[in-house]
């Protein structure tokens, strides 16, 4: 199948994942330009697509400065000549040997700490002669997930201990402002408040650290909603690390991060069964190809939690493993309009999850299939 | 990693999927024995595990009589000397060429129809000399998904047309009683009612077909809840085709299909971050390794929608891609009991979805890792 490409998006086998290369390029370039304008460096996150081709576009071709969510990604990119890689996941000692190999191999490999435990683990691991660990403090600016709370004295204490360690270069601060997703509804004021709070808390911590005589070269913040619509305050940061924006999705559209025309992925699916008795037809795209994340938003808007871009009259009302249930948003379904085998396209709720379900993505320009991208999997 | 096996379930890298071989064997044997006792044939469904090793155990070693949800599975099993394979998905003409190859290659390859469209597609495709399509009618006995409604005259009409086609052998009836999941709550009476309704509707249709002079050799019904706890009436059926029972999961336990001691899969995860400020710790198992299906049941029971078998005091309260948020079911968390790196195990809500997230499964007997199973992926 991989040897001979299908000609068009109407010829790909269903279900499959389609990546719109022109939209991807535009999404990537827009983020590069935005960061340039703000005077902020961009360290794109790879977790959404996990491919070489996507990473090249996100880094503007220079293959430097990326963030990853797994060591499998880090190793995959290292093997493919990427460098300056940040492992953006809380560190545990079980993963240290692989981190040592990456740190020794790469020019720069960054890790994060959010505890004395992680710091001590690093201090006990020696790198090749002359090399030191490049360490960021992970900060929780109110999202409530990983990281040291921004207002906790422990944040400054940890930085002092890191900066004075013989085998560590303290690099700066990292935060993920996941609260910018604000319950997946469009609430611009609330999102901007989150972004400003996050920024000010991070800058405040940087200043407290500076009073101890320690410089944060990097003050980085991520999340696609905040980096797609940055507030003025955010130019005080040095680095953005969003990831999802390469593809965007219905969730991001719902939040207001993107327009529907910027969503660069869709699942190609076929009508496989007619159920006039329940005003429905079935497609061959269930959660095995669309991903299940977001199902709880299935009634959040008229079209459900996904969008059929060419058929705004349709709503995905449920999924099993390999079947999707589709009804009209209102009225009686005219099944003659959707014969068996009809090709439909679906923008997924969460492209990070949908992409994970696929061994490869078909890449298209307009209707033409022009390539296949193969993501790395596992951990 | 695959070359040298980790020694025990405490040495596997996290996150990963663990398969308890002894439980799998017991689950498989119990279903084989149950079918034997009822005088019903077993055609296990492969969609949950998608491995050769699991299929051998489910078929009692004879590699015959299986159901699959994708053609990728059908081709994978055909290449590995399995035969008598049922493609249990609504047929569309785009998939016919691959079906022809399977039908020509295998001794028996069954397909399902639920429309004149599907029937006509088959009639137009000739198999190798002497071969005929083996066709089942997919029936909807009230679940409301694919299949012709049991009480629709079209069911009998389709069978008559199929039985009189020159290149078709009409084999019988197939239904998936997905309504036996009864909103994922334990409601034994309601489930039994669904099972009896399904059975009686299917047998009623079989009798109506017989009055037309056509025999249904196969009258098959599936779903793990109904086949794990069959009612007496179900012995009137000729074939069961459940799939999930090889692994079971928290959803099946909640419905009453299995005991917790029969759940044969768990995700191995590590404590990666402490968050005393929000009475929580984080693990490295998010929806990328646990699957997102079932998140809407996250508050359905005290332990959430997953179970920590060795730590009944814990609850998974949320997931992002690579992080799980864990709190105590009640009271204040003593983080000293869960140091960084602590190995935990989680039974997933839906093992079909969780398994799909993993490139391979580590198989263990007691605490010893004894092998790796590699599932087929794609469509």
Automatic annotation (TrEMBL), chains A, B:
GO molecular function: D-serine ammonia-lyase activity; metal ion binding
Gene3D superfamilies: Alanine racemase (3.20.20.10), D-serine dehydratase-like domain (2.40.37.20)
Stretches assigned to the D-serine dehydratase-like domain: 264-365
Enzyme Commission number(s): 4.3.1.18
Keywords associated with the record: Lyase, Metal-binding, Pyridoxal phosphate, Zinc
GO biological process, one term: D-serine catabolic process
Catalytic activity: D-serine = pyruvate + NH4(+)
Enzyme class: lyase
Cofactors that this protein relies on: pyridoxal 5'-phosphate; Zn(2+)
Alphabetical list of PANTHER family matching this protein: D-SERINE DEHYDRATASE (PTHR28004:SF2), ZGC:162816-RELATED (PTHR28004)
Family note: Belongs to the DSD1 family.
Full protein name: D-serine dehydratase
């Amino acid at each position: 199948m991989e040897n001979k490409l299908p000609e068009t998006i109407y010829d790909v086998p269903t279900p499959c994942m389609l990546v719109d290369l022109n939209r991807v390029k535009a999404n990537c370039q827009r983020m590069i330009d935005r960061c340039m304008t703000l005077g902020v460096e961009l360290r794109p996150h790879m977790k959404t697509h996990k491919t070489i081709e996507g990473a090249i576009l996100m880094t503007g071709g220079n293959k430097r400065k990326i963030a990853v969510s797994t060591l499998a990604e880090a190793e995959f990119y290292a093997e493919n000549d990427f460098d300056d890689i940040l492992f953006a996941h809380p560190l545990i000692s079980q993963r240290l040997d692989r981190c040592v190999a990456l740190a020794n191999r790469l020019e720069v490999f960054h890790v994060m700490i959010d505890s004395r435990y992680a710091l001590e683990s690093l201090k006990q691991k020696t790198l090749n002669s002359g090399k030191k660990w490049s360490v960021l403090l992970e900060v929780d600016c109110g999202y409530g997930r990983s990281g040291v709370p921004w207002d906790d004295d422990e944040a400054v204490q940890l930085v002092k201990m890191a900066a004075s360690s013989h085998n560590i270069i303290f690099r700066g601060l990292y935060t993920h402002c996941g609260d910018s997703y604000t319950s997946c509804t469009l609430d611009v004021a609330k999102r901007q408040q989150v972004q400003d709070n996050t920024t000010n808390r991070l800058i405040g911590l940087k200043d407290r650290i500076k009073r101890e005589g320690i410089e944060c070269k990097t003050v980085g913040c991520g999340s696609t909603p905040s980096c797609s619509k940055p507030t003025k305050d955010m130019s005080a940061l040095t680095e953005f690390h969003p990831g999802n924006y390469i593809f965007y999705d219905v969730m991001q559209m719902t939040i207001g991060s993107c327009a529907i025309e910027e969503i660069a992925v869709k699942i190609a699916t076929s009508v496989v069964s007619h159920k006039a008795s329940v005003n429905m037809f079935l497609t061959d795209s269930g959660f095995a190809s669309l991903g299940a994340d977001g199902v709880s938003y299935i009634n959040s808007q008229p079209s459900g939690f996904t969008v059929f871009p060419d058929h705004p009259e349709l709503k995905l009302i449920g999924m099993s493993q390999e079947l999707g249930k589709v009804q009209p948003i209102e009225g009686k379904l005219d099944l003659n309009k959707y014969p068996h085998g009809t090709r439909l396209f679906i923008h997924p709720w969460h492209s990070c999850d949908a992409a994970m379900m696929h061994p490869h993505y078909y890449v298209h320009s307009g209707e033409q299939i022009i390539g296949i991208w193969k993501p790395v999997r596992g951990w």
